Amino acid sequence: MSKHDNVLVVFFSRTGHTKTVAKALAKKLDANLIELLDKKSYKGILGFIKGGYMAYRKKSSPIEKLDISLANYDLVILCSPLWAGSITPAIRFFCNKYPLPQTAWLITCGDLTASVAHLPTPENNIRTIIKIKDKDISNNQYKNSLDEFLAML
Description:
Blueprint: E1 7-11, H1 17-29, E2 32-35, H2 44-56, E3 75-81, H3 89-97, E4 102-109, E5 126-133, H4 134-138, H5 143-152
């Protein structure tokens, strides 16, 4: 990736795994970082079930207002957990609301064999996609995967 690229890292995290990786990524890239705050709560087992259902149904969920112009960025890296085979409702809302430049996806998940269904960005607009296991994040063993992702940008 060239040094002139202006990069924004956008993430949603329910448990903190995605937040951990997004912060490390933004630091390595010297990029701006935005956490999406969903207006719905996904705490506890009921929140887990509700979030999974909404993600599976490809529904979006309103987020707290952002004061940002994406026109200032050449690349937006979207970081989302994988819920029921799909990205989170907050990330889906962001993608549908804001016109995005080139994108890259960093997906956190329990199983690397899980497929990612229906990303809400045009396929020809995606530079790369990587999945990182939650277990590797918990064990602080995700840095090699992060370096691989950076090399693909």
